[in-house]
Amino acid sequence: MKKNLIIGFLLVMFLIVVSGCGKTNPSSSQEQNNDKLPVAVSFQAMKEITEAVGKDHVEVNCVIPDGTEPHDFQPTAKDLTIISKSKMFIYNGLGLEKSWLDKVTAADDNKGLTLVEASKEATPMMVAEDNSDSKVTDPHFWLSVEGAKLEAKNIRDALIAADGKNKADYEKNYQEFAGKLDDLKKEYTEKFQNSKRHDFVTGHAAFGYLARDFNLKQNSVSDALLSGEPSAKKLKELTDYCRQNNVTTIFVEDMVNPKISETLATEVNAKTVKIYTLESSPDNLDYISALRYDLDKIYESLNS
Fold this sequence. Notes:
Elements: H1 2-21, H2 26-33, E1 37-41, H3 44-54, E2 58-62, H4 77-84, E3 88-91, H5 98-106, E4 114-117, E5 126-128, E6 135-137, H6 145-162, H7 167-193, E7 199-204, H8 208-213, E8 217-222, H9 232-244, E9 249-253, H10 259-267, E10 271-275, H11 287-302
Parallel strand pairs: 1-2, 1-3, 3-4, 7-8, 7-9, 9-10
Antiparallel strand pairs: 5-6
Helix pairs in contact: 3-6, 6-7, 7-11
């Protein structure tokens, strides 16, 4: 009898162990589900595109604080710590982060860091600097519909290389984002083809690639790199241009001092309208919505 009890007890214990082996540990499963890829990016537009492709699989942190102009940024030790805690650093390229990128690559904490140049294989535009005969690369590639699509593709490839188990999701997210950009390109290509005019005036020459997408012409108060105050000669030429072409709108960028643009607008009896460079958070608009807003405002200015 005693022997039968022992055998019965051992059988029950065996069944408990076997049934336990078939279950996943709830806490370990939860940790796996919350295992996001830590990614650092240089500024807001890179964050928007990375999150559009990575969605729930990435945790994205900006190095350049919101509201800070990327052209003049120099990282502090605290800013560089954001990168050291990440597996990947995504930056725009085309010279935008050139003045401090070497600090990222030189840091001992970043030896295993994957660097991703989002604009890799872009066809750059060369633009003149104010008060200079030299030309420099325009870095504002992310403000182009086609540019955003290429940057999303490069980011997708980098995320797949770092996190292959989620390849299908990254591909799906990219196709969704690229599809929205394609729709935007198609819609506004048709609109701009029928516009009364095809030129617009901005305070900061940040929209050259966007103009290239739609065969438009951008004229600006300040150059693409905000390298200095425009000369009196340039301001006179732009004032004459606005008057001769009946320009009714001077665009003011959200991250640039509007004073000179407002003075120009007053001089030529035009209004000022804000548009976004996506260098900082665009008033609760996502990337596609902000780009659509910009295109809407430009289209309206060409047909007013």
